[in-house]
Amino acid sequence: YPSGNLAIMVTREGDQMICTVQEDEPRTTKIRALFQSDGRSTCYYPNGDEWINMSIQGGQYLDQAGSRVKRWLWPKMSPGPHVPLSPIFISLNRHVGVRILAQDKIIISFLAMGRQAKFNMGTKVQVGAAGRPPAPARLGRDELLLLAFRVRILQLFDRMRGCISFPSSQQWNKMQPPAYVLTQAAKILELCAAADISEELRSSIRAIVNA
């Protein structure tokens, strides 16, 4: 960013490319979007709520209340008629935008000081002989831990908001986290159960998420 803060990182893990968009903040690494070359991508609202979620089958667009605005399937990803995608454009902030045109045309654009850079993180998943797309790659140890700690941070932020809203009451400590945090925690536990990791690590991730 013009401020000097890191905006976009493109890294490689094995045979997979990962593009991470961070917010323009000096002391945090708030993730605004994550795009993976295996077809999985997620964009987040500034408060951390899920905005757009995509997989090798299709995607969905959520409003800030967590309600689904639209849902689509990529062509040839499922039998029968599919829901087509109307082009989507969102601005993650004043410098970074995301344009979703097709499965193989997901463009991240960065504009600052009169100069522009574009990254195409779309992918074309080949349908197998049985007519089904291949199963998505399983997450590794570091990715699972990162997701678990992210949920834990969201839980702590929610408790802080409760403490600020009810400073003289202990009821905030008994309040349940928001639905989107519970949903993300459940998803991580599902991924953890399917991952090829040790039982010790699996227990540690459960402890982080359920703390």
Automatic annotation (TrEMBL):
Domain of life: Eukaryota
Domain FAM194 C-terminal: 1-174
Family matches, as Pfam families: FAM194
Xref: PANTHER family: GLUTAMATE RICH 6 (PTHR23093:SF18), SIMILAR TO CHROMOSOME 3 OPEN READING FRAME 20 (PTHR23093)
Protein name: ERIP6 protein
Lineage per the UniProt record: Eukaryota, Metazoa, Chordata, Craniata, Vertebrata
